[in-house]
Amino acid sequence: KMQIINFFRKSSRGDFVFSADRLIRLVVEEGLNQLPYTECTVTTPTGHKYEGVRFEKGNCGVSIMRSGEAMEQGLRDCCRSIRIGKILIQSDEETQRAKVYYAKFPPDIYRRKVLLMYPILSTGNTVIEAVKVLVEHGVQPSVIILLSLFSTPHGAKSIIQEFPEITILTTEVHPVAPTHFGQKYFGTD
Predict the structure, then answer these.
(1) Of 25, 44, 158, 176, which sits most exposed with the smallest number of CB within 10 A?
(2) What's the gap between Cα 120 and its chain centre?
(3) Is the peptide bond before 66 cis (omega within 30 degrees of 0)?
(4) What is the pLDDT of residue 1?
(5) SS3 letters for 31-46?
(6) Using an 8 Å Cβ cutoff, are 121 and 150 in contact?
(7) Which domains can be identified in the chain, with CATH numbers?
(8) Could you tell me which of 187, 176, 184, 172 has the C-alpha nearest to residue 10?
(9) Which of 40, 60, 67 is nearest to 149 (CA)?
């Protein structure tokens, strides 16, 4: 497990972004698998009929800025027309308390299933604040699916204690999380 974290620390930015995008795509696809769908018949360009599925209307993504924005393209690659909201939350370095600075959502978010995107879940404080903002906008925690690349056991436990109905999808749970993700992904490290 430390090999992945060391890879993220020591890799070139190009390798880092490539690997991060691959992990993002995997967790986004699994998140999409959790959304409700209906069966439908698809006619292929060659005229053949195929029994497939279609997402039910009423899904959206919400990225926790700035690192969560790295996950937006992976979601759009899978669902071109999905609506995406944003939340900006900054943590005080001394107190570790999270403060909401900005939130913009689709106006009917209270009727939607929400894929909440935040790649590195360390303490859980930022996600807890984001979920509180979503709840203030009428979103039930039971329809929120958190998409994360790495999570600490403490962070996941903190979120589940506060919001037991939320679903958390992550690629790895480990006591050490690569907290420099956003800086390396966007090239600001």
Answers:
(1) 44
(2) 9
(3) yes
(4) 46
(5) HHHCCCEEEEEEECCC
(6) yes
(7) 1-186 (3.40.50.2020)
(8) 184
(9) 67
Would you state the structure tokens that stand for residue 23, as one six-digit string? 């992990």
What is the chain's pLDDT, residue by residue, as a tens digit (189 residues)? 445 556 666 778 888 889 889 999 999 999 999 988 889 998 989 999 999 888 888 899 999 998 889 999 999 998 888 999 999 998 777 776 778 889 999 999 999 999 999 999 988 999 999 999 999 999 999 999 999 999 999 999 999 999 999 999 999 898 888 777 777 778 776
Instruction: Give the number of C-alpha atoms closer than 13 A to the C-alpha of residue 65, restricted to the C-beta side.
Output: 14
Q: Which pTM does this prediction carry?
A: 0.87
Q: What distance lies between CA 140 and its chain's CA centroid?
A: 17
Buried b (16+ CB within 10 A) or exposed e, 114-145: bbbbbbbbbbbbbbbbbbebbeebebebebbb
Helices (H), the chain: 2-10, 13-33, 72-78, 125-136, 153-162, 181-186
> Taking a C-beta distance cutoff of 8 angstroms, is the pair 12, 19 a contact?
no
